[in-house]
Amino acid sequence: MKAFVNGTILIGTGEEIKSGTVLINQSKIIGIGTDLTIPAEAEIIDVSGKYITPGLIDVHTHLGVFSEGLGQAGHDFNETTDAATPYIRAIDGINPFDRGFEDARMSGVTTVQIMPGSANVIGGEMSIVKTVGTVVDEMIVQSPSGMKAAFGENPKKVHGGKGKLPVTRMGVASLFRQQFMKAQDYKKTIEAGEARNRDLGLEQLVKVLKKEIPLRAHAHRADDIATLLRLIKEFEIEATIEHCTEGHLITSYIAKHNVRVSVGPTMTSRTKQELNNKGWHTLVELEKHGIPFSITTDHPVVTIDHLITSAITAVKFGLSEEAALRAITIRAAEHLGIENQVGSLEDGKDADIVIWSDHPFTAQAVVEKTFINGQCVYNE
Q1: What secondary structure, in 3-state letters, does 97-154 show?
Q2: pLDDT single digits (tens) 279-309
Q3: In contact, 330 and 55? CB cutoff 8 Å
Q4: Mean pLDDT over residues 38-54, rounded?
Q5: Element (H, E) at 182
Q6: In 3D, which of 229, 221, 224, 315 has the Cα closest to residue 277?
Q7: What pLDDT is attached to residue 71?
Q8: 23: which strand partners?
Q9: By the number of CB atoms within 10 A of the CB, which of 5, 104, 154, 361 ranks highest?
Q10: Nearest Cα to 205, choosing from 170, 181, 241?
């Protein structure tokens, strides 16, 4: 049992408690406030003058499947042998010894979603993990946590460049429809008890049709976002918009749909046409229209240690401080569907806690300690 006392607590939901206490027992938070009775057996950790936040969450990464510094040997995120690979699973490619996990802990990031890349129209299943461990099976929070899809330039370039479908955006949408129509037929055979030969890819797409997992779709340009929203309605599936770079151009339209959005990596350069309208204004417009959003680094496109930097920069360009913190804590947890477990400092949630030397949105603030499930995993 540990008691963090005398710190300024940023709950993650917008609430702030000054000179407060966070009490944890083993892996869970069991109390938070200013007048807690601290059990005699608790280890007291005085954090006077410091700030306490929930562990940060990045909803869209390639940690462990795209390792920095290894070249092609570390590229386990894009199975480019086909434009539709719903049968693959990111969990089978995650290397827990990727240096990025250490960088995450050092920067207060305790939970990440790891997904296949965006080379394919259908990319495969993804997983949510804590950022500490040596065996991925012991790091899992939820697996699978979604099915990857990608619209626009990436699948066109990778497969169209070989003269294969899809060469155009029309081809991207048609291939998506073909795959989900096959999955609809496969679902009917299963329900009728007529399925004979199992198909791993179709089985995993059926999970999306049954709303057991959401589709998580890479879409930068406004027209690609509109295509995604059209297909969501057509197949009656749940989905999140990943990147949403031009979301600010059609915020009123997005707001009509029940979707969550992840935005980023905004700190990267404009490396392709789809990023021409990239900017922090996207987040500001989404906030104005009440569209729930998270901030992502898309690690290693922008490295995971810059998740907090991204939030700070967004504030400098007009995003409210409260929205920026929520975008990497409770809103991120809601995006992933794990808000009952992580994302804020509340009773019963995982003891994922970060101790900062100053307010985390100040330039001089550093992470002094990171706790995951109540265990110290980084100590400056």
Answers
A1: CCHHHHHHHHCCEEEEEECCCCCCCEEEEEEEEECCCCCHHHCEEEEEEEEEEECCHH
A2: 999 999 999 999 999 999 999 999 999 999 9
A3: no
A4: 97
A5: helix 169-191
A6: 221
A7: 82
A8: 3, 31
A9: 104
A10: 181
Q: For residue 96, give the DSSP letter.
A: T
Angle CA 99–356–328, to nearest 5: 65
Residue with tokens 């265990």: 375
Ramachandran category for residue 198: left, alpha or beta (phi over 0 → left; psi -120 to 50 → alpha): beta
Q: What is the DSSP string of 288-320?
A: HTT--EEE--TTTTS-GGGHHHHHHHHHHTT--
Residue type, 94: I
Over range 143-172, report the average pLDDT: 97
Token pair belonging to 248: 């600010």
**Sign of the torsion angle spanned by Cα atoms 335, 231, 273, 280:** negative
Q: What pLDDT, on a 0 to 100 scale, did the predictor assign at position 72?
A: 85
Distance between the two ends of the chain, CA-based, in angstroms? Answer: 21
pLDDT tier at 163, thresholds 50, 70, 90: very high
Other CB atoms within 10 A of residue 203 CB? 16
Furthest CA-CA distance within the chain: 70
Q: Which residue carries 């309605």 as its tokens?
A: 233
Residue type, 249: L
The pLDDT score that the predictor gives to residue 64 is 98
pLDDT (tens digit per residue) in 86-133? 999 999 999 999 999 999 999 999 999 999 999 999 999 999 999 999
Nearest in space to 95 (alpha carbons), one of 110, 114, 111: 114
- Non-local (6+) Cβ contacts of 240 within 8 A are 146, 214, 215, 216, 217, 259, 260, 261, 262, 335
Closest CA to 262 of 204, 218, 214, 213: 218
